[in-house]
Specification:
The chain has two domains: 181 residues, Rossmann fold (3-Layer(aba) Sandwich); 126 residues, TPP-binding domain (Rossmann fold, 3-Layer(aba) Sandwich). By secondary structure, it is α/β, with parallel strands linked by helices.
Length: 329
Amino acid sequence: MANVLAFAEQRDGEIRGAAREATSAAFRVASGLGGEAHALLLGAPGIAASASELGRFGAAVVAVGEHEALGDYNPDAYAPVVADRVRSGGYGVVIFPATTLGKDLAPRVAALLDVPLASDVTGLEVEGGALTVVRPIYAGKAFAHLAMNATPAVVSIRPNVFQPVENQAAGTVEGFAPTVDAGAWGVHVVERKSAGEGALDVAEATVIVSGGRGMKDPSNWPLLEGLRDAIGEGVALGASRAVVDAGWRPHGEQVGQTGKTVSPKLYFAIGISGAIQHLAGMRTSKTIVAVNKDPDAPIFNVADYGIVGDLFDVVPRLTEEVKALKAKG
């Protein structure tokens, strides 16, 4: 019997959606292995108050490490604490979310445990008592099936691929005192820049409206904001690398191989030609809608729905149609 540990990400004292996804995935894997799903939550004093929520998604035990130094993420603080918890718990599998934080933390923990890491996983299966994972390779053009033979098997899962499913478990909260030596840190957080109040991270959005160089000028972005607002909650703005490099949009919105990898239910590619770097970050979206005036644009090769036309004509009409549909209820 092998228990599975999910790293539960929090920010500003609030449990992230990625934590629920990781916990739910851990429950599914643990059920196949005949073990229990546990969750690990680190943060400043008081974070334990919301820990039991993870029991709704299958966590039999939620281990909570509270320390003032763990309020904000610092790799030198988090990685040793997570690795120590994995060792002491004897876990067979460890699951991280492949968020910005998870992509930084997971390889550090794997290195401390001296085991390989399967990153950005889009499939998890238990076969013959062992974990097999699926992950995109070659910029998403192919998928590799990997048998995880190391103990523990360490993986990170792509956000929005493994939807959280409620599987009520005990959710017993067990506090522990993490060992934190700030004097040994090689890095310190000196500043955090927020995307702005109310701005949704593209990695967590269920719908993304992305713009590319076809937008012509940053002053035209209200066009995309109008479509975003018409759709409603759970929608984020995204951007291509060319747009971010030009300084039109913040790097936090960049979708692609050197930006963020996303898997929303619906992805709008507006004025984006579809360079391989961009496709690598969004081609696993459930539904892709492309608007481009070039009928030969590569984006149409991955789009489920394509509109060949001037985006400055198409997007306003699309926005009005969305508003009309929502008005009908």
